[in-house]
Design a protein that fits this description.
The protein is built from 7 helices and 7 strands, in the order H-H-E-H-E-E-E-H-E-H-E-H-E-H. With 151 residues, the protein is α/β, with parallel strands linked by helices.
Length: 151
């Protein structure tokens, strides 16, 4: 699948036009795509869930956010331009905070948070300085951005 996706992206000039970012939970798939074309911006999606009172990343890519080291970020940075974490677990435990966003960016990685549909959460994340927000409701995000421009 990776070869076909890279070929399609290349055939349509999406990298040169800056119109593509590929995200995946599969570290192996992203590494394969990076090997095929290291100009394609890739984002490593991450999902932490609660296990025995601890946060564990379900694909075992990283430790919990507050335990991530420079080495963890560097490993991802070898094939990706950023990470895509979620804001909260299914149980409602907040996974991210402003310090984690800053820590990620200090390691020269972008941070695109998913899937944010609540406008208050969008505003909070933008105030914290995230590089991107994935949402099912772009009109809501657009309204938040407009409100921030007025402030």
């Amino acid at each position: 699948m990776e070869e076909q996706l890279v070929e399609t992206v290349e055939d349509h000039g999406l990298v040169e036009e800056g119109n593509v970012v590929i995200q995946s939970f599969s570290q192996e798939s992203l590494q394969t795509m990076h090997d095929l074309n290291d100009d394609i911006p890739l984002v490593q999606l991450l999902w932490w869930e609660e296990e025995n009172g601890e946060l564990e990343e379900w694909m075992d890519i990283t430790p919990q956010p507050d335990e991530m080291t420079e080495e963890n970020f560097k490993e991802i940075g070898e094939y990706a331009v950023g990470i895509g974490p979620h804001l909260e677990t299914d149980e409602g435990t907040q996974v991210l905070d402003e310090a984690f966003i800053e820590k990620t960016q200090n390691q020269d990685l972008l941070i695109h948070v998913y899937t944010i549909n609540d406008q208050a959460e969008m505003k909070q994340l933008l105030d914290w300085g995230v590089d991107g927000i994935l949402t099912d409701f772009p009109d809501r995000l657009h309204a938040v951005l407009e409100d921030q421009e007025k402030e």
